[in-house]
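Hey,

Quick one before I head out. I ran the complex with pyridoxal-5'-phosphate overnight. Inputs first:
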Amino acid sequence: MFKKDFPIFDTPLIYLDSAASAQKPKMVVEALSDFYLKDYSNVHRGTCELANRATRMYESARKSVAEFIVADEKEIVFTKGATEAINMVATGYEQLLKPDDEVLVSISEHHANFVPWQQLCLKTGAKFCIFNMKEDGSWDLDDFKAKLNENTKIVAVSVMSNVLGIINPVKKLTDMAHQFGAKVLLDGAQSVAHIPTNVKDFGCDYFVFSGHKIYGPTGIGVLYGAMEALEVLPPYQFGGDMVKDVFIDKTTFADLPAKLEAGTPPIAEAIALQSALNYIQNIGWEEIQKNEKQVFDYLIQKLKNIHQIQFLGNPDIKTGLVSFNIKGIHPNDISMILAKQNVCVRVGHHCAMPIHQFWGVNASIRASLGLYNTTEDVDLFISALQKAIGFFK
Ligand code: PLP
């Protein structure tokens, strides 16, 4: 239904890899090129009309992001992606954590929300704690409760796992963490394209996402922080735009969010991200979720008919993406044959090795949906998959 908005689908392509990066609607690409062709200037610096216009457009993008996740503009920091946003927070906590403190993450995190915390703990001497999931892939909240205590300073978890596709009960977890005074960072890199985001409802202190997974460009991401949570973060980088006054012997820093946006920001990317958010809002969440559920249910039903299939987690509690293996065949072998048939899926550990270790496998095949996918894509994918399986019989 929405494929017509995405020029890449003008030629045949079965794209089931939107969890890695989503395709771009024409209007997003046009927003990017229009800005460069008609409105380009640096921001926050110039006095001419062009510079003022670019600044207005960049700040209007910030406003749109704030509205999209139900936050205030001052709470939105543009980064180059979710990874940088998480690193910004983790690096900030280098100066705030003590050796007895603890950081708690789930076993199912993407490396971007795992390694920065692990490294932070190695640097500061704080304890890196991990809570488990159950066999069905849902979080083990008893284990979470057992690992949460008054030493826990940060809980960092994803709203939606990039391997399991399970929407996690983040509100519940955030409430529990706050009872112990811990700050909560939610990784929304996957969830933003599948469910509406309301950081106030989540109750989190930090929320991050990347533009490219939500039909926007690469090179732009967002760090949301509740004001007091952002205020404790020292500057991540030093340079232009993040200073108030610079003297030979000292520097004072700009107010938020500028304090955390050193140097020339990703201006065109922010403006194109705004266009992606407009695209989503024009369609509406109800329509997006209805269409996705229909295609996803169909995909799961078809996959269940393959008798050698081994799902990672319970397929009936997933949204938008599914990871699996075919018993007796290496996932790389399957993916090579799928690729020959013009089917794009992701194969490997999906930057989440600990979760694969939990199931005792090195890799899996992941099929993930975007709002453009149809049941016809599913049929073509399943027939390509059957062909690949048949090849190894
Ligand atoms: N978190 C999750 C759950 C992800 O799926 C990804 C990317 O796959 C990231 C974080 C990192 O996103 P990026 O590479 O855009 O910074």
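The longest strand covers residues 152-158.

Talk tomorrow,
K.
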